[in-house]
Amino acid sequence: MLPAHVIERRLKELESSAQQTRLEAMRVGAVLLAKMDAHLANETVDKAQTGELAALRAHHEMLMRLANDAQAKIDKLHAELHDLKYYR
Question: What is the pLDDT of residues 29-86, one digit of tens each?
Fold first, then answer.
């Protein structure tokens, strides 16, 4: 098991990275919603718009997966740190 100071430093790095990923996911999500709204308002369906929406959805899903994976690692490190501080 890693020393407490190493775990704490890694936690700070992961939390910062996860926050940046979440912010980017929110930004992409906002762009996606705006484009979907504009797409729904148009009567004609443009293949380029449909492709752009699909790409934005895929990018948003990837960012959300990255954020969720980072959060899982953060939770695991918090548990390790707790065990290290209180049970060893």
Answer: 999 999 998 888 887 778 888 899 999 999 999 999 999 999 999 999 999 999 998 8
From CA 56, how far away is CA 31, in angstroms rounded? 8
At CA 50, angle to CA 47 and CA 53, rounded to 5?
Answer: 150
**CB neighbour class for 60 (10 Å; exposed up to 12, middle 13-18, buried from 19):** buried
Closest to 4 measured CA to CA, from 67, 21, 12, 26: 12
Rounded Cα distance, 52 and 40, in Å = 14
For the chain, give every domain's residue range. Answer: 4-87
In angstroms, rounded to a whole number, what is the distance separating the alpha carbons of residues 16 and 10?
A: 10
Look at residue 17 in the predicted model and tell me its pLDDT: 96
Q: Which residue has the tokens 């953060």?
A: 74
The pLDDT, as a whole number, for residue 38 is 86
